[in-house]
Amino acid sequence: MATRKLLLLPGDGIGPESMAEVRKLIDMMNADFGAGFETEEGLVGGIAYDTHGQSISDADMDKAMAADAVLFGAVGGPKWDGVPYEVRPEAGLLRLRKEMELFANLRPAICYPALAASSSLKKEVVEGLDILILRELTGGVYFGEPKEIIDLGNGQKRGIDTQVYDTFEIERIAGVAFELARTRSNKVCSMEKRNVMKSGVLWNEVVTATHKAKYSDVELTHMLADAGGMQLVRWPKQFDVIVTDNLFGDMLSDVAAMLTGSLGMLPSASLGAPDPKTGSRKALYEPVHGSAPDIAGQGIANPIAMIASFAMCLRYSFNMVEEADRLDQAIAAVLDDGLRTRDLMSEGMKEVGTVEIGDAIVAKYKALAA
Ligand code: NAD
């Protein structure tokens, strides 16, 4: 059995509490199912600053580069609001994304049946929803140059950001979209604004050409990103994989996130290019939520986003599809049983803490595997 190397970076606030529940799953999968996970731990964010004066040390960065996958908790909090900009907690996450070249950000929006009634949309619109938003993460308007504010000398200033994409950047994210679609319902919808943006015209052309060259078995549609936003709240179940750029992806993935209820439920994955020799990708898995300083240390954080991020790690880094499905089913079953952390509480449900819901998911996983 091959060793599977995981780096755990719990971070700040509720990061360590949530990660502790994933650690239980890892220990159980090693002990009961011979999963062969080998874990190392590192510091990131405020705690890394307190310890090393950096938001992530070079030594921990090396561990991240050597790992098969990184599990990341959350960083930040009021304690570090005044630290220098270059070493602020978020800089650790940005360094990981940059040095690991994580260009593909996957944000699934899954509506667990037990939570369909708590969405802001009608139950029938979201019940059974399972879509994946794929956002290009390292290019586009957030990074394009020039990026500046210039003084026009007449009492006016000009703010400039540059939306820029090269062919290879669009090709590689499109490739990830088509490959992911093949493991799901085999449909990709590409979103851009080709009606008003040159980068949108190129995006559309390159996605179309990539599809034709290598992925014509996948159903491809195109939609203008603004119309896509509308369709996401009108009838989200029409989509399977949505692929889009950094800016539109930032917004559309937040819209999709809210279809499913609490921030405490949302996992994500960021993937790099496949290694030409081994085919494996650098990867980092993290919940969408932050460090939630308002509830940290109280034992009430919802660990499901972190646990579901680990399920994505099983699926995408280790091809442990059966185990990933089982973990997702365990989460759904625990919710079906009426267990809820405080953020999900509604009438008639049973409120439990972080550790209790984590224990229940571990027990359910074992029961499902029996
Ligand atoms: P947040 O996501 O930490 O919290 C927003 C609200 O949601 C809070 O009321 C919080 O209690 C609640 N919440 C979040 N996750 C929850 C969970 N798992 N269970 C129960 N409730 C949960 O966002 P924020 O308050 O804007 O930011 C807090 C800190 O986190 C800031 O320092 C911010 O910079 C940082 N942050 C970090 C990341 C990251 O590490 N990737 C992302 C976003 C924010």
User: Distance between the terminal alpha carbons, to the nearest Å?
Assistant: 21 Å
Overall pLDDT, averaged? 95
**Physical arrangement of strands within the biggest beta sheet:** 2-1-3-12-11-4-5-10-8-9
What compounds sit in this structure?
Answer: nicotinamide-adenine-dinucleotide
Helix content: 40-55%
Low-confidence stretches: none
Keywords: Amino-acid biosynthesis, Branched-chain amino acid biosynthesis, Cytoplasm, Leucine biosynthesis, Magnesium, Manganese, Metal-binding, NAD, Oxidoreductase
Pfam family, one: Iso_dh
Subcellular location: Cytoplasm
Cofactor: Mn(2+); Mg(2+)
Record keyword descriptors for this entry:
alpha/beta, binds nicotinamide-adenine-dinucleotide, 12 helices, two-stranded antiparallel ribbon, IsoPropMal-DH-like_dom, Isopropylmalate Dehydrogenase, 3-isopropylmalate dehydrogenase, 10-stranded mixed beta sheet, 370 residues
Tell me what the structure shows.
This protein is 41% helix and 22% strand. It has 370 residues and is an alpha/beta fold. A hairpin with a 5-residue loop joins strand 6 and strand 7. The radius of gyration is 21 Å and the shape is globular. 47% of the residues are buried. The protein binds nicotinamide-adenine-dinucleotide. Nicotinamide-adenine-dinucleotide (NAD) binds next to loops.
